[in-house]
Design a protein that fits this description.
It is built from nine helices and 18 strands. With 372 residues, it is α+β, with helices and mostly antiparallel strands. It has three domains: 5-90; 92-119 and 126-193, ATP-grasp fold, A domain (Dna Ligase, domain 1, 2-Layer Sandwich); 196-369, D-amino Acid Aminotransferase, Chain A, domain 1. The longest helix is centred in the last third of the chain and has 20 residues, at 252-271. The two termini are 32 Å apart.
């Protein structure tokens, strides 16, 4: 079998910002990540002066999961060797909409397949994805029989915009604020509401011939308004694939979370034509359902750079620098204010963000392990 041309050395790393608006602090982190990827790949980080073509041989850092394979193939994005992140064929595949089946008889967008949810069912919480308000009402009625329901807009992140409803009537004001066309394109998730929730991250990154996999947790902090927000991730990263991760001494619930992420990913690879990803991250929730039963399932995927990516990149570089290194602990930190940074911190942003105020973002590598 011939290797894809994408395996040829890259000429440069290019930041591909596909969003309408990127905050100052995020743009600064993206530029620093592009620098780190360029170092790993042994090429410069550039800002092209002309529209990119496949012949340019660029490696891309997109700010979002790319949607539409044909357009991006023309830019040279054809395999996971061409980008840090992922690409899917249809919009809904880039969101948590894939994490649930449709209610019977519901409408669906182009490219939709129930086969994903059927294959991944043991890795999913109970819930439905819908693409119309009428189907949202149906899904709510089906789920409310067993207790409160969490309504989750699929484009929101970090839990923002989610509401818990206990009656069908409580759904109506939420639906009233939704655009029918957006709903038809992206979808909406309704899911059993869990209490006492722990959320775990499981992921894998593959860059420059290196593969590393991890499990981790997220921390919360308070912003300048006192609102609880994402404060960083703490990861245990191993050299190798998910099977290398499963070789670690793990608590049962963590082993289950990793196996659920693997099942979710295998279903995506099998049923989503055109799906590629070099950066894969899954949030797995563990908590009690309304009947008091312990439940665990994948909430959503992230096939793009994320809050943990600065730690992922430090781990990749550590493995590249030391072939005997097998495991590291890597963490990201987002601190509001001007803290004294640890001596081993790699700073990704420090300044006064126009939207969030004084903010510091840094990453650290600790606990190097050379044992096989």
């Amino acid at each position: 079998m011939t290797m894809p041309s994408a395996c040829a050395p890259k000429t440069a790393v290019v930041l591909l910002d596909t969003r309408e608006h990127t905050p100052d602090h995020e743009h600064a982190v993206h530029l620093k990540l592009a620098d780190g990827l360029a170092h790993l790949l042994g090429c410069p980080h550039v800002q092209p002066s002309h529209p990119a073509t496949a012949s340019d041989g660029y490696y891309y850092l997109p700010t979002e999961t790319l949607i539409g394979t044909q357009h991006h193939a023309a830019m040279g994005i054809r395999s996971e060797q061409d980008l840090f992140g992922g690409m899917v064929a249809y919009p809904y595949m880039a969101t948590k909409a894939i994490s649930h089946p449709l209610p019977a008889g519901a409408s669906f967008p182009p490219g939709w397949t129930d086969a994903f949810a059927r294959q991944a069912c043991d890795a999913l919480l109970r819930g439905y994805t819908v693409f119309s308000k009428a189907d949202a009402r149906t899904a709510a009625q089906l789920l409310l029989v067993d207790g409160p329901v969490r309504v989750k807009p699929v484009l929101a992140c970090a839990g923002r915009g989610q509401q818990v409803i206990a009656t069908a009537d409580a759904l109506e004001p939420l639906l009233a604020g939704m655009d029918d066309q957006d709903l038809e394109l992206w979808g909406l998730v309704l899911e059993e509401d869990l209490s006492d929730v722990q959320t775990f991250s499981v992921g894998q990154v593959r860059v420059a011939g290196l593969t590393c996999s991890y499990h981790g947790t997220q921390q919360l902090t308070h912003d300048h308004q006192g609102t609880e927000v994402y404060g960083g991730s703490d990861l245990v990263v191993v050299r190798g694939d998910y099977q290398a991760l499963l070789q670690l001494p793990l608590e049962d619930h963590l082993r289950l979370a990793i196996n659920q992420a693997i099942a979710y990913e295998l279903a995506a690879e099998q049923h989503f034509a055109g799906f590629i990803a070099s950066r894969r991250n899954y949030d797995i929730a563990r908590g009690l359902n309304p009947q008091g039963h312990l439940r665990s399932g994948v909430l959503e995927q992230s096939w793009r750079l994320g809050g943990a990516s600065s730690a992922e990149l430090l781990a990749l570089q550590a493995f590249a620098d030391d072939p005997t290194l097998q495991r590291v602990r890597a963490s990201t930190h987002e601190v509001f204010g001007s803290p004294d940074l640890p001596t081993d911190a790699t700073l990704y942003y420090q300044g006064h963000d126009s939207e969030l105020g004084q903010l510091s973002k840094f990453a650290r590598i600790r606990e190097h392990d050379h044992s096989e």
